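Q: What would this chain look like folded?
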Amino acid sequence: MGEIAREGIRIYYEDHGSGEPLVLIGGIGQQICMWGDALERLKSSFRVIAFDNRGTGRSDKPQTGYTMDAFVEDTIALIRSLDLGKPHMLGFSLGGFIAQALACKYGDAIGKLILVNTAFGGPKYAPPGIEVINALLQGPKGETALERGIDALRYDFTDEFMQGHRNVVEQVVQCSLEHPQPGYAYQGQAAVGGSFNMEAEVREVRNETLVIVADQDRIVPHENGLELQKAIPNAKLGVIRGAGHMVFIEKPQEFSDMVTKFVKGEW
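A: My prediction, written as structure tokens:
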């Protein structure tokens, strides 16, 4: 574990395992600990570097400065500071947006690209259903922080997982409560996601790419991933069935196996 500083902002990271470097870029509000068992599995094959985006976890949470350019430059600064060479990049949700922008600007500085439950944005973005949108606008319900955290995640997982693996969901919530994200930081990250549009730019990506979609994703419907895979030249598609948005928590073994085979050229 450690931190780097860029323009006065401290970015916290953790460095696990050994082998080819694989950098994980999280989604809105996602902390390192929320990668869960998937990180544990991946570090047996790779040197895994996970970090908290600005505004999240143990990284600084400035009042302003939430832009796509800032997220990209934070990431490339981490890569250079740790002398990672050309690491493979795995971006989830908002992290997938960041990874796409990184590949467009610094494609020669990175290896393979894995984009998980994400999209190229813009007017062709397929939004979540009205039930999900209303829930996001209304905010989580519950009398305690734990109850509100569980309610906030109810669309990130399938209903079956929420009912059958409540202990895992509670662990995710407890993780998020260790270093809570201020509302302004969440809004700053969400605004970057809301204005994202790289439909034209991703067509120029030349990094080997795997797009992973979960067929039960209610936050970023999997149709977005299908379109993203078609837009990126020669991109491969991986479909994980019976899982929701946080697919790496619901299906950690299938997820890590898919990533490992792709990075190692066994796909």
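The chain has a mean pLDDT of 96.
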